[in-house]
Amino acid sequence: MIILKKILPLILLLTSGWMFCQSDFRLKVIGEVSRPLELSLSDLSKMPRKEASLKDKDGSIHIYKGVSVSDILAKAGAPSGKELHGENISKYLLAKCTDGYQVLFSLAELDASIADKNVIVADTVDGKPLPETKGPLRLIAEGEKKPARSSYQLESLSIGQIKK
User: Fold this and answer.
1) Which residues on adjacent β-strands are paired with residue 141?
2) Which residue in 23, 39, 80, 89 has its CB near the most CB atoms, within 10 A?
3) What sections of the chain are H helices per DSSP?
4) Are 121 and 105 in contact (CB under 8 A)?
5) Per-residue model confidence as pLDDT tens digits over 113-148
6) Which CATH class is domain 26-161?
């Protein structure tokens, strides 16, 4: 019982610190966009929700829910639809994670007028918040043979362009 009395305050302190960090979290949308953004978890929760499924390494399929990357990019003013021609067709999205992992998508493959790719910024898996070690956000690229671009601890989406 004495050990519990000593450990409980430590657990509460660590948990409240993690929750504070999560409430302070902002997903940055930067680069070649007309409206750079910093979206809180609350901001994202108010946007339209989508689902995406992903098979993990042991073959289990999990259902993730979150916001479509294309909706986030539209809010930031990234080129889409008829704007994706000429110079804009060489623009890309670089997704960066807190551990330094980065993945790349062309804007064209994320645009519904060009491709049927379902890529979301997820905050839940199987109806529960993402685990602390994998969240608060995870990028999910549904339908890819390998989950290499489905990245943990997403922190920013940066729009760039291949230069001549």
Assistant:
1) 119
2) 39
3) 2-24, 41-45, 69-76, 107-110
4) no
5) 999 999 999 999 999 999 999 999 999 999 998 889
6) alpha beta
